[in-house]
Design goal:
The chain is α/β, with parallel strands linked by helices. It has 14 helices and twelve strands. It starts with 8 loop residues before the first helix and ends with a helix. The structure holds pyridoxal-5'-phosphate.
Length: 369
């Protein structure tokens, strides 16, 4: 099936990027391992194209409502975005964005005079003020790891009015919850490594472009820079994408049960989860239609947070999210994490296990503190 127009996202995730349905065709796009192709066709060489990349890009593009392009990591995809603007561009970015993206902006500032304006993405007026005269805006919503929620419809319109190139990092929300291109963003960025691949076995990134001309520019640039994805990674990510909705819905349902229980436990000083009715991002997340599967909990200090992470058995201390497995970590253990993130903040990436098993493990760890 080629056309996906009019289908629900759950169906698109299943049917997009499949081989043509002719007798004896494989149901799934096979993994193509090729450095070169017989001359005379569209592909020619392994750095220019690969059928397995294309299948993944088609499916992700259809889900986000644009044109997909895969990169070897989420950070490589962000690097490709930075190449779209001048080396001394003015970039608006969330103060609590993924630390790797912020680190890259700092590096570009040192090497090329790029200037970054850090904003609280939840403060719509402050973001709009920062957009004036800017070349590029990176928005994350919810942010990693503070879970602040932006008013995306308003900010997409404001960026468009001012001619600011807008890229939305949709890693946390996923297209299950929000489709920024439909709101007017120019580009969507994914750390495919997380929810889309979904099984903690792939590092991969992607951009999805609203405009085909921009897709062509980026695709040409990818050929030249050689920043290309691996076919195996695309194959695994496409396999993961088929079950994206099931996984995200289940993990979100688990998070929705766990967050209120954490919020009333005396060991937890503060819980950020957009699904909590008291959370500052609740109304915006509710309008979006999904609360996500990441919870951030603040403990009294770093030592208490570390003790909590060590005390869990089922929840694994690890630095990723979006896998089927529940994981947690104290974010400030990374020197690059923003100093405005509390030392005792633990980011909890909720998986798809039975929720009462997850809670029993958390409750025992909390009670041991
Ligand atoms: N964006 C967000 C929100 C992330 O959390 C991450 C990684 O944690 C990235 C981008 C970078 O992605 P990758 O690790 O695939 O390079």
């Amino acid at each position: 099936m080629n056309g996906t127009q009019g289908l629900h996202p759950q169906t698109i995730a299943v049917v997009a990027g499949r081989p043509e349905q002719v007798p004896d065709a494989p149901m799934n796009t096979p993994l193509t391992l090729a450095s070169t192709y017989v001359a005379g066709g569209d592909l020619e060489y392994g750095r220019y194209g690969n059928p397995t990349w294309q299948a993944f890009e088609t499916a992700l593009g259809a889900l986000e409502g644009g044109h997909g392009l895969a990169y070897p990591s989420g950070l490589a995809a962000f690097g490709a975005v930075l190449e779209l603007v001048r080396p001394d561009a003015i970039v608006v970015a969330p103060r609590h964005a993924y630390l790797g993206s912020l680190g890259r902006l700092v590096q570009e500032g040192t090497r090329h005079d790029l200037m970054t304006r850090l904003v609280d993405v939840a403060d719509t007026e402050a973001v709009i003020a920062a957009l004036d005269g800017a070349d590029l805006a990176l928005l994350e919503s919810p942010t990693n790891p503070a879970l602040e929620v932006a008013d995306l419809p308003t900010l997409c319109a404001a960026a468009r009015e001012r001619g600011v190139l807008l890229v939305v990092d949709n890693t946390f929300a996923t297209p299950v919850a929000q489709r920024p291109l439909g709101l007017g963003a120019d580009l969507v960025l994914h750390s495919v490594t997380k929810f889309i691949a979904g099984h903690s076995d792939v590092v991969l990134g992607a951009l999805v472009c609203a405009d085909h001309g921009m897709w062509q520019r980026l695709e040409q640039r990818r050929r030249i820079t050689g920043v290309i994805p691996g076919p195996m990674e695309c194959w695994l990510a496409l396999r993961g994408l088929r079950t994206l909705h099931l996984r995200v819905e289940r993990a979100t349902a688990n998070a929705t049960v766990l967050a209120p229980r954490l919020a009333v436990h005396p060991a937890c000083r503060r819980v950020r989860y957009p699904g909590l009715p008291t959370d500052p991002g609740h109304a915006r997340a509710a309008a979006m239609g999904s609360f996500g599967a990441v919870i951030s909990v603040e403990f009294a200090d770093a030592a208490t947070a570390d003790a909590f992470c060590t005390a869990t058995r089922l929840w694994v201390t690890a630095t990723s999210l979006g896998g089927v497995e529940s994981m947690l970590e104290r974010r400030r253990r990374w020197p690059g994490e923003s100093p405005t993130i509390a030392e005792g903040l633990v980011r909890m990436a909720v998986g798809i296990e039975a929720v009462e098993d997850l809670w029993a493990d958390l409750a025992a760890a909390l009670d041991s503190l």
